[in-house]
Design brief:
Its EC number is 1.13.11.5. By secondary structure, the chain is mostly beta strands. It contains three helices and 29 strands.
Length: 447
């Protein structure tokens, strides 16, 4: 499949032009920009943010962004939620809800915007504090519609179907073994590489107020995990379409609004800066694990983090579990039983196993709430206890799980807990029949 052209390097200062000489030299706001374009700045941080965290891009456009109609309320998607302090849409639960793959609508044309449904989250965007976890289930392209999110950055993980994303800065092709980030304030639209089934599904992690960055590597050193060179950014690609009705759906303070432009919003001919959308391929992740004994913490699989004010504590971490070797000796190799002060939301992305025989098939998601116990199920425990070899185990290619983790207690929506009809309410069945091996007369009773 043909992909687009990209520039590489996380957080770099890039520049791109779709026409020769379209990018002004030396200055940002010349009196007469090339080709009769208009200068416009998009800021992702305050003007006075430290230079190492200052995010902005200069765009050179056919039309200023102000050329649009008034905003009116948009009623096309009542299940996209951002305010988790309002009890109207919230269902508080201390259980560990597990969702089977969310169904893609069988009838009608549902595009990316109208297909987004909120599962859980915390906080709300007006105070730039919190996050939301959504699922999208869609059947059609956005065509002459675009979306702009004033509340937070979208980290999008496609699970079913390939995303063909057009942004103001260029195009991204994002497959189910990849993810992308669309920072807030950037116009984009999602079309799909069509399949016979016309079914598309994935998950979205939205963070309010802050942005994703690479985690610190500490004693790991200068290399490993997700390397800067493997993050890909678009190149300039513009549309010059006039006398057309282009609908812009905007999420602002958790509310959806609609406005109309008489031209394509993707009319940026050149740009330079560091506030941009990007994508990443899971297969390029360089995993770190224990080479001798014990099960290390899942933080070693962190791809991106959104830091809080507390050192080492994240508003959100994005973690993946890629193909790798498990080589530990005399070690229970399954994830340990856990009560975590952080909330965890694992999702199944890809699998080579038969979905009918898996309790966590691709498209599934689970919420492990703060300090609520979780761990391996009885069948997995028995298989691990019966293992007779210390031979290295290879997790196969084609299997990917990911996880969103947060310091916040996440509040589930009424849609996710009731209307979605996808809750697996028998999650405790795999734990309640765990074999009790304790024998106070035999120190080797687990052998």
């Amino acid at each position: 499949m043909k992909d687009y052209e990209y520039q590489a390097g996380f957080g770099n200062e890039f520049q791109s032009e779709a026409l020769p000489g379209a990018l002004p030299e030396v200055q940002n706001t010349p009196q007469h920009p090339p080709y009769g374009l208009y200068s416009e700045q998009l800021n992702g941080s305050s003007f006075t943010a430290p230079r190492s965290h200052n995010l902005r891009t200069w765009l050179y456009k056919i039309h200023p962004a102000t050329m649009q109609g008034p905003s009116v309320s948009y009623k096309g998607n009542p299940d996209l939620i951002s305010n988790f302090l309002d009890p109207v849409n919230i269902h508080v639960s201390a259980s560990q809800p597990k969702w089977t793959p969310f169904e893609v609508p069988a009838n009608g044309k549902i595009d990316f915007i109208d297909g987004i449904k909120t599962i859980c989250g915390a906080g709300e965007p007006t105070l730039a504090s919190g996050l939301a976890i959504h699922v999208y289930t869609s059947t059609s392209n956005m065509n002459n519609r675009a979306f702009v999110n004033s509340d937070g950055d979208f980290l999008i993980v496609p699970q079913l179907g390939i995303l063909d994303i057009q942004t103001e800065f260029g195009k991204l092709l994002v497959q189910p073994n990849e993810f992308c980030v669309i920072p807030r304030g950037i116009h984009f639209k999602v079309n799909f590489v069509e399949t016979l089934e016309h079914q598309y599904r994935g998950y979205i992690l939205e963070v309010f107020g802050r942005h994703f960055e690479l985690p610190d590597l500490g004693p790991i050193g200068a290399n490993g995990l997700a390397n800067r060179r493997d993050f890909l950014y678009p190149v300039a690609c513009y549309e010059h379409i006039e006398n057309v009705e282009y609908k812009i759906i905007q999420k602002f303070q958790g509310v959806l609004f609609e406005t109309t432009k008489k031209h394509s919003p993707f009319d940026v001919v050149s740009w330079h800066g560091n506030y941009l959308p990007f994508k990443y391929d899971f297969s390029r992740f360089c995993p770190i694990t224990s080479a001798r004994f014990d099960h290390l913490d899942p933080s070693i699989f962190t791809v991106l983090t959104c830091k809080s004010e507390t050192p080492g504590t994240a508003i959100a971490d994005f973690v993946i579990f890629p193909p790798r070797y498990s080589t530990q000796e005399n070690t229970f190799r399954l994830p340990y039983f856990h009560r975590n002060c952080m909330s965890e939301f694992p999702i199944a992305v890809l699998s080579t196993s038969d979905p009918s025989k898996s309790s966590f098939s691709p498209g599934s998601g689970t919420l492990f709430q703060t300090l609520i116990p979780h761990g391996p199920e009885s069948k997995s425990i028995e298989a691990e206890m019966a293992r007779k070899t210390e031979q290295a185990l290879r997790f196969p290619d084609g299997n990917f799980e990911a996880m969103f983790e947060s310091m916040f207690q996440l509040r589930t929506t009424k849609w996710a807990m009731n209307a979605s009809n996808m809750i697996n309410r028998n999650i405790h069945g795999g734990w309640n029949d765990i074999k009790i091996r304790f024998d106070p007369t035999n120190i080797n009773s687990n052998s």
